[in-house]
């Protein structure tokens, strides 16, 4: 089969159709979790019974809330942020953040869920769900486009929509879906030489999760190797400047005292993985997933260096990060799959994409 016929074959399914399936997956998961709690949307804000400060904050704004029998999860902090996304009243809202600067750096999701700061609290709770469901659909659509750009079927867009780590993000009101979707849009835009849209998506991804600056660096490296030097520099520098500008704004609003002590997810290489064994004794699923993730990282690294796909380089920065994750990330399958979600999607695309030696000239052009 020639290159062009492979591309034509990959377009037999519309990415829009696959994106709509991603939307259906998100809606179905939301309904599945709302029915048992009487359609109480606060189940997605992930308040915890063992975190009384944020629980009382939620009750003050929402009335009765669905509290989890533990500390809760990220959604409770994003709910706090979304009620004051510009930190105009930090003494009212941001005081309920456990690590204010760390949490506040992830600005795009709460800005969207908060309606730029205009939504009422209950609307914010629903908007958090809507933004993530739409993000899941959009990311599935973008991944389908990326797969087509690799001469694969658009059906592989479901590598995003069925990604366990991203579905977990939906359940806890996290920002990972929005960030990962924007990375896939950046990759899809570059495959089509739409550099401006790619850069905008890269900036949005970094403002969703500051760790996604590593995606900008990976994409920049891919561009640099194709001698698009100015574009490569721009793709790294512009997102970094956006993140830095927001960081300065936050320190003006929240103070300059906090620093690296707020970062609890990274440590010495593989120490977190080894220490997680002490907690895996009664968690066979988490142990199996943790070991599988480590093997995935090894296989993914080999694919990136042997095949050189753009989507692989966009996610490659998570490889060294995975080795640095602390015990709290490794210990639970729920958290480790969320942490490496972009690697899971990228690996599935690379593993099931095929090309001949000159496919790259057609499908991933030298810019």
Radius of gyration: 20 Å
Elements, N to C (H/E): HHEHEHHHHHHHHHHHHHHHHHH
Structurally, how many domains make up the residues?
1
Distance between the termini: 26 Å
Structural class: mainly alpha
| Residue fraction in strands | under 5%
Can you summarize the main beta sheet?
Answer: 2 strands, parallel
Q: Spatial order of the strands in the main sheet? A: 1-2
Number of helices: 21
Percentage of residues assigned to helices: 55-70%
Quaternary organisation? single chain
Q: Which ranges are low-confidence, i.e. pLDDT below 50, for 5 or more consecutive residues?
A: 1-6, 356-363
- Tally the beta strands: 2
Mean pLDDT: 89
Shape: globular
How would you explain this protein's 3D organization?
The chain has helices at residues 3-10, 15-34, 52-62, 74-82, 100-104, 108-113, 121-149, 158-161, 164-172, 176-191, 195-208, 213-225, 229-254, 271-280, 284-307, 310-316, 318-324, 327-330, 333-339, 341-352, 359-363, and strands at residues 47-48, 67-68. It is mostly helical and 367 residues long. It has one domain (3-264). The protein has a two-stranded parallel sheet. α15 (284-307) runs parallel beside α19 (333-339). The longest helix is centred in the middle third of the chain and has 29 residues, at 121-149. It starts with a helix and ends with a helix. The model is unreliable at 1-6 and 356-363 (pLDDT under 50).
């Amino acid at each position: 089969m020639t290159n062009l016929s492979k591309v034509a074959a990959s377009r037999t399914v519309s990415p829009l159709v696959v994106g709509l399936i991603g939307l259906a997956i998100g809606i179905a998961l939301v309904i599945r979790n709302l029915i048992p709690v009487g359609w109480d949307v606060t189940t997605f804000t992930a308040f915890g019974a063992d975190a009384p400060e944020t629980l009382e904050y939620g009750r003050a704004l929402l009335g009765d809330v669905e509290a989890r029998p533990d500390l809760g999860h990220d959604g409770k902090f994003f709910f706090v942020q979304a009620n004051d996304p510009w930190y105009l009243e930090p003494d009212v809202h941001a005081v309920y953040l456990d690590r204010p600067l760390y949490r506040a750096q992830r600005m795009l999701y709460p800005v969207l869920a908060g309606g730029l700061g205009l939504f009422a609290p209950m609307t914010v709770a629903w908007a958090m769900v809507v933004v993530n469901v739409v993000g899941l659909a959009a990311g599935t659509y973008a991944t389908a486009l990326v797969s087509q750009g690799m001469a694969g079927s658009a059906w592989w867009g479901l590598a995003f929509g069925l990604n366990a780590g991203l579905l977990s993000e939906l359940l806890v009101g996290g920002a990972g879906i929005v960030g990962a979707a924007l990375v896939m849009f950046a990759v899809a835009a570059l495959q089509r030489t739409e550099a401006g849209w790619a850069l905008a998506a890269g900036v949005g991804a970094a403002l969703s999760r500051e760790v996604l600056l590593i995606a900008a660096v990976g994409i920049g490296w891919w561009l640099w190797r194709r001698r698009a030097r100015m574009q490569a520099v721009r793709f790294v520098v512009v997102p970094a400047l956006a993140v830095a500008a927001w960081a300065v704004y936050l320190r003006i609003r929240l103070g300059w005292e906090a620093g690296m002590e707020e970062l609890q997810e990274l440590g010495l290489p593989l120490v977190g993985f080894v220490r997680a064994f002490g907690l895996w004794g009664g968690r066979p699923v988490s142990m199996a997933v943790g070991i599988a993730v480590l093997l995935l990282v090894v296989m993914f690294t080999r694919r990136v260096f042997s095949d050189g796909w753009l989507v692989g380089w966009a996610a490659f920065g998570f490889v060294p990060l995975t080795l640095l994750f602390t015990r709290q990330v490794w210990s639970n399958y729920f958290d480790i799959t969320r942490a490496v979600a972009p690697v899971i999607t990228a690996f599935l695309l690379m593993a099931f994409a095929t090309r001949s030696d000159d496919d790259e000239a057609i499908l991933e052009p030298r810019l």
